[in-house]
Protein 1
Amino acid sequence: MLRVAVVGSGPSGVYAAQTLVQQREVPGVRVDVLDRLPAPYGLVRYGVAPDHEKIKSLQGSLRTVLEDERIRFLGNVEVGGERLSTGRLLELYHAVVYCVGAARDRMLGIPGEELIGVHSATAFVSWYSGHPDAAAEVFDLPGVDSAVVVGAGNVAVDVTRILARGTAELAPTDMPQPALGALADSGVRRVAMVARRGPSQGRFTTKELRELGTLPGVDVGTDPAELALDPVYADPVAAAALPAVARRNLEVLRGWAGPGPGDAPRRIALRFYLRPMEILGGPDGRVTGMRFERTAPDGSGGVTGTGVHEDIDAQLVLRSVGYRGVPLAGLPFDSGRGTVPHAAGRVLRAGRASVGEYVAGWIKRGPTGVIGTNRPCAKETVSSLLQDAGALARRDLPGDPLDALRAAGLRPVRWPGWLAIEAAEADLGRSLGRRSVKIPDWQGLLGAAGPL
Ligand SMILES: Cc1cc2nc3c(=O)[nH]c(=O)nc-3n(C[C@H](O)[C@H](O)[C@H](O)COP(=O)(O)OP(=O)(O)OC[C@H]3O[C@@H](n4cnc5c(N)ncnc54)[C@H](O)[C@@H]3O)c2cc1C
C-alpha cells in the first residue's frame, strides 16, 4: 500500500487526491487530505465570490472526491506549525504533496499603506467569505462614501462588485451575517477601480467585467480620454491582433465610455493609466484619498510616468495587485517567484529532487489560471509521484498517521465533523431566514464540528 498525505484541500489538493486514487498504475493508494482549516475546498470556499453561485457549486464535485472511501479529510491540521513539521509528516507517509496555495497579497510599496481604511483585497475577500482568520477584521463601511480599488484583475472586479452590489442580492448567498450586515449599512456610493496600464492590458475576464454593467442601481463609466490613450483603442488592425479576451474587454469598456455619472445611487468608474504614488490621510490617521501619477504607453507594452498627478477621494482603499506564496517552515522556497522550486512537481532541495516530497497548484506554479488549471497541474505532479512509487513504498511506516497526529496534540476534524459544520451552517441560515450561512470564526467552526 502507498500512503500519501496531500496538504491543502483546495482544488489542487482535491485533484491530486482524485488522480492518486483513480489511477491504475499503482494499486492500493490511500490518501489523507490535511488542511489547517476545519473546512475543506480552499479558495473555492474562501475566495470565489459568494454571488458567483455557479462557480461555488464546484464544491459539490470536490465533495464527491473527498467522500471517496480511499480518501480521508483531516481538517484543523497545520503542517509546518508547532505540532507537525514537514520532516515528521514524511515519516508518517510514503509521500507528501504540498498544495497549500498562495494566499498572501502583495503590497503597493508606497507611503500611507498603514493608514486606517487601507486593506488588501485578500483581507476584504476573506472577511466577506467568512475565513476564520479574518473574523477580527473591521471594515468601517458606514463611514465610506468613496472607495478606491487598485488593480485590474478578476479579484479587483470581485471586490468592486461586492462593494457596489445591493445586499438584497447578497442575502441569498452564504455570506456571513456580520459581513452582510456591514454591507447593508455601507455608505459607499462611488467605487473607482484603478489600473496602472491601459484598458487592453486588463487581466480581468470579459464575463466578470461585463457583469459590473448588470448590477441594479449601479452606473458604470469609463473616461473616453483614458481609453483613447491606449494605442490599440482607435486602431482596428492593432485591436484585431489582440488576444480574444482583451479585444472583448475593450469592446465592453468602449460601451461604457460616456459623458458622466447617471442618476443611479452607486457608480463604478474604471480608470486607466494611473500609477499609485501615495495614500493620503487625515490627522486622525484615516485614509482620505489616493494620489496617482498619470502614465502613458511607452511604445513597448509598458507605461511611463508623465509627472502629472491626480488625487481621488477615498475613505476605503483596497489593493489587489496579486497574490504570492507564503514560505512553509521546512520546505524550500523561491522568494523571487513566491513558489516552491520543483521539477515536474518534485520538490527540489538544493537543486535535487527531494525523495517523497511534491508540490501542486498555486504554490507550484504561482497564482495564475482558473480552478480548472489546477487539474492538469496536479496530474503532472501525481504522474511524477507514481513514477517514484516503487522506491517510495519500500519504506515501512509507523502505523496509522491519525494516531500520531493525535499524539502530537492535534485535534483533526474528520469528514463527519465537517458535515456537522455544514449542518450547523444550514441551521444558522434557517434561524436568520436565509439559506445556509457561513460560520466565520474558529470557535464557532470547531464547536460545530463536535468532539474531536
Ligand atoms: C479572491 C479569489 C477569487 C477567485 N475566484 C475564482 C473564480 O471565480 N473562478 C476560478 O476559476 N478561479 C478563481 N480563483 C482562483 C482559484 O481559487 C485558484 O485557482 C485555486 O483556489 C488554487 O488552488 P490551490 O489548491 O492551489 O490553493 P487554495 O485554493 O488556496 O487551497 C490551499 C489550501 O491549503 C491550505 N493550507 C495552506 N497552508 C497550509 C498548511 N501549512 N497546512 C495545512 N493546510 C494548509 C489552505 O487552508 C487551503 O485550504 C479565485 C482566487 C481568488 C484569490
Protein 2
Amino acid sequence: MAVPKRKVSKARRDKRRSSVWKLETPALVKCDQCGELKLPHKVCGSCGYYKGREIIKKEA
Ligand SMILES: [Zn+2]
C-alpha cells in the first residue's frame, strides 16, 4: 500500500482545508420580469425572459 513519504506540514494541511479552494458563490440577480433569482446575463429560468423579451416559451 502506498504510504506518504513525509508528514504534511501544518501550513499545507491547513491550506488544503482553508477557503482558498472553495468556489465562490455564483452571482445572483433578481429577474426584472418575475423577481426570481437568476444568473446575470442569462435567460431567467423561471419565466424565460431576458432583456424584457420572452426568449423561452413557458406554458402558462
Ligand atoms: Zn423571470
